[in-house]
Amino acid sequence: MKSIFYVLFLSYLALNGSWAGDLQISYSMDLPSHSIGPDEDMVKMTFLVSKDGKPVDTNLNIILDSPRSSALFSTDFPIVEGSRLFDASASTENGKLEMNYMFPIRGQYTLKVKAGSTDIIAKPATETFIFTIKENPGEVINFYIMIAVLIVIGLLAGFVLSKAALRKLSLEATA
Predict the structure, then answer these.
(1) Burial 3-35 (b: 16+ CB within 10 A, else e)
(2) What would the mean pLDDT of 74-80 be, rounded to a whole number?
(3) pTM score > 0.70 for this model?
């Protein structure tokens, strides 16, 4: 009876020892997130999965959610705001998976990556990455130019209308 207990205990320890090193997930992009232009730059995303510092072949489930809508400012593509952009599964080769993606709008994205090992015993890992894509600098400059033009047009219209009103008042006063 004791020998069965010892065998079970040793197999438990052996199994637990193989779980000791959990899967680690990391990702990188070929461009820094602050320099990515939405709907402009194709970005190469690289996912790396390792166990105890060694690459591991795994099945990845990648979920990308778009930024939530803002009550104050909308983006130029509001139907995408707050939606799931993709939910995809893929397998890594030597612990690595590369994909290209073009982010549609500015804002804070949430990327969830789940890794389950295919050939070794390891605890499944889940990582959540949050990053922000800024607005295209050209669009920001165009916005400021448009605001300046509208202010100038408003000032000119106010000047013309006030001159006409003053002229009308002076004509009525002389008549």
Answers:
(1) eeeeeeeeeeeeeeeeeebebbbebebeeeeee
(2) 73
(3) no
